[in-house]
Design a protein that fits this description.
This protein is α/β, with parallel strands linked by helices and 77 residues long. Helix content is 51%, strand content 16%. It starts with 5 loop residues before the first strand and ends with a helix. The model has no long low-confidence stretch (mean pLDDT 93). The protein contains 3 helices and 3 strands. β1, α1 and β2 form a beta-alpha-beta unit. It has one domain: 3-Layer(aba) Sandwich (Rossmann fold), CATH 3.40.50. It is flat. It has a 3-stranded parallel β-sheet, with helices on both faces.
Amino acid sequence: MRQPPILIVDDEEGIRTVLSISLIDSGYTVHSAPDVDSALDLFKANRHLIVITDIKMPGKTGIDLLREIKKSARKQK
């Protein structure tokens, strides 16, 4: 069975890499972004069902990202 794609958002490349490798090894498709704006572009293109995000990042936070995703989901209904 094909697993849903997962979006990983973290400003630290090492964390994105380790999480991505682990999830890919478990059969998931993984997209990753270093910041909220990049993550939103990926989310709009792929509509991920699962988002793993760092909370504290320079500029916009993970909470900002989740709020934007929630707004986007409301518009889709």
